[in-house]
Design brief:
Layout (H helix, E strand, L loop, with lengths): L3 H12 L3 H8 L3 H9 L9 H7 L4 H6 L6 H4 L8 H12 L2 H10 L4
Helix pairs in contact: 2-3
Length: 110
């Protein structure tokens, strides 16, 4: 992989079932993200911190391809949540109250 866009979209394809979900995660329109993918614009440069966060990586990796691909590999045992853990937490927070209660019961928190 040679370009920033190639690194971004390789991770997008790994982590997001739909490109639209990635766009939502970084506060950008799906059409703008599509333009980035096909090379119409490189305006993603101004959003690299948000993109790196959404992709659980570092701006260094996106810019250069150097360093660990995953923030989890870069920061071990720091108490930060993995991408999967964050996604699970987001799903819980968006769930209906009765589903949240059921999850708490299963976990023995109620």
């Amino acid at each position: 992989m040679d370009s920033i866009a190639e690194r971004i979209f390789a991770l997008v394809d790994e982590l997001y079932p739909e490109q639209k979900a990635f766009a939502l995660a970084i506060g950008e329109t799906p059409s703008k993200v599509s333009q980035w993918r096909i090379g119409v614009t490189k305006s993603y440069n101004r959003r690299l911190p948000q993109i790196a966060e959404a992709l659980n990586t570092t701006t260094e990796y996106l810019l250069t391809g150097n360093g660990p691909k995953s923030k989890a590999a870069a920061v071990s045992n720091s108490g930060t949540l993995s991408l999967a853990d964050r996604q699970m937490l987001d799903a819980y927070q968006q769930a209906a109250p009765e589903l949240q209660a059921a999850v708490r019961r299963v976990l023995g928190l109620e």
